[in-house]
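Predict structure. Chain length: 325.
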Amino acid sequence: MLKRELRVILVSLIVSFILTAAKFAAYFMTHSVAILSDALESIINVIAGGFACYSIYLAGQPKDANHPYGHGKVEFFSIGFEGAMIFIAGLLILFKAVQYFITPRVLHEMVNGLWVVGATTIANLFLGLYLLRSGKQLSSITISGNGQHIMTDVYSSVGLMVALAIIQFTGWNWLDPVVSVLMGSLILVKGYQLMRRSISGLMDETDMKTIDRIIDILVASRRENWIDVHNMRVQQYGNNYHMDCHVTLPYYLSLHEAHEEMKCIEQLVNKGFEGSEVEFFIHMDPCIPSCCHYCLKEACPVRGDAFRGKIDWTRANVLPNRKHG
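Prediction complete.
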């Protein structure tokens, strides 16, 4: 899988380098600040692609004594770095737009520039879709983040093409820096979103979608011995996850029987996260009399209270560190 991830990001790096060169050629041809804005953003594609190559390589290294959870968190650094670069590019674009408002420049060969931008936009569209699909298949936040950035580039380039066409047919050269301001603002927002995602990952912020996914897996295969689940926590390390939780079991199960129940949970969740590896730390709690009224085990030899209804496992009762009852 590591080789495939590296191959995907290398394709992105090579294509981005070629497209960046083409966009700068279009800028020198037209002197359009809007095209320059597009080219500056593409430089970030190249820089981020290079950093992503290293982060994917490092994330694929095996666990060691100094990194018992592996090296996967470097991917959060990768998307944070990419977000910071995008944010800086947005600021540079806004700065150049203000300069062009103050000192307008004559535009040249707009038709040729429009053709070049159109060709790079189509190439970027195919690249972005390829990266998003690959990122989803490989569960790689680095590749997915790179794909999201490329797609943002596509959207801004489409807007740029529309603006260039309007300028060509109307002669409204003042529209050039206006479009650049809009593009710069869009890029700033995208950079902030990637940095926000990076910080949340590094700070182990709970991913509620992942929690819901695990809950759905457990609910779909719920066994009568699984009386209660609580204190669930999930951390992501690149393509891997670390999950810990408390599971309440009948107190009279043997150690071997309890171990088999935990093993079943591990197999179910790993199957549901196919393509990733989920590492577990499950704490087994013995049941107590207050659990009887929601225990699903019909043939329980020690039941002390009548069954009154099961507890539905949701975020509200799976995440807190308390046994129900």
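Summary: The chain has two domains: 2-202, 208-318.
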